[in-house]
Amino acid sequence: MSKYDISKFRNVTVALNTPFDKNGDLDTAAAKRVVRYFCNKGVKSLYVCGSTGEGFLLTDDERKRLVEAVTDEVGGEMNIIVHVGCASTRQSVELARHAEQAGADATSAVPCVYYRPSEEGVYRHWTAITEAADLPFFIYNIPQLTGFNLSMELFYRMLENERVAGVKCSSDPAHDILRFKQAGGEDFIVFNGPDEQYLAGRIMGADAGIGGTYGAMPELYLHLEDAIRAKDYDKAQKIQNIITPLIYKLCSFASLYGAAKAIIALDGCPIGEPRLPFLPVSTEDPKLVELYHEIRAAVRETE
After folding, report:
1. Any domain includes 237
2. What is the dihedral of CA 48, 51, 53, 55, to 10 degrees?
């Protein structure tokens, strides 16, 4: 059982897109603006340097500077979870130490990048990260990208670590959420990962959600979460029925990250383009502009 009070993490957590300037360099000023933008919309938690944040395309120094910018702007106002996953355990440990020093609220990490370590290797990797910082640690299970699927045997071993506070479950089967929640118990947080099934994940036992499309339409996810908490499942289903087609439209562009950044820019908060190999999406693309207006109309409809 985790030794931390983790109730504050039970909410909609935006996976933060990392801002870059016109030269493709990290833009810390834009980072401060965009986290304030989300805070003003009512978002309470951010997931920094993850997949959506192009974390693996950032240098260690850039990751540290981004975390510092975020905590400097909204530390104490928002819950900041820092993804510290790297190919090297040594790098992950250094980033975890830095996250604690910078004032983050929690760390998280995928099991591996490119390589395919054994379960024992992953166990030691995650354990080393938890030993580096006295913060809640959230396992990040995303087998479709890492090639490593968290087994129940390894999961039970990780549960013996009092700093392991939850898991971000991005595997496809919704019943994985149920199994992790049943094993973790009431004081253990399971985050729904697949945005298309937010409602299903919550019904299956997820306590909250972390997602890469939340940034393009945070209000819709906040409205969906409000409906779930009110046990108004008819309304929740209607909102999910609106969100899921919008997700597919976002994914129809040259890159999801480019489309999400363009949507955020059209909403008044420019954060630049993604880094290659991810492609940019123009804010002048007629289909993108149409999608932006569709999202804003959906926000008004679900209020």
Report:
1. no
2. 80
Task: Give just the sign of the alpha carbon dihedral 4, 32, 68, 209.
Answer: positive
Domain that holds residue 120: 7-231
Distance CA 128, CA 112 (A): 13
On whether the pTM is more than 0.85, the answer is: yes
In a domain, 89, yes or no: yes
- HEC string of 147-171 equals CCCCCHHHHHHHHCCCCEEEEEECC
Which candidate in 4, 140, 257, 292 is catalytic? 140
φ/ψ (deg, to 5) at 109: -160, 145
pLDDT digits (tens, 9 = 90+) for 168-201: 999 989 999 999 999 999 999 999 999 999 999 9
Positive or negative: CA dihedral 4, 219, 142, 206: positive
Gap between the Cα atoms of 19 and 54, Å rounded: 10
Radius of gyration of the chain measured on its C-alpha atoms = 18
Q: Taking a C-beta distance cutoff of 8 angstroms, is the pair 104, 139 a contact?
A: no
Tell me, what's the pLDDT at 5?
Answer: 86
Q: Which of 37, 44, 47, 168 is catalytic?
A: 168
Q: Is 256 a domain residue?
A: no
CATH code: domain of residue 33: 3.20.20.70
Active site residue 168: yes
Confirm whether 114 is a catalytic residue. no
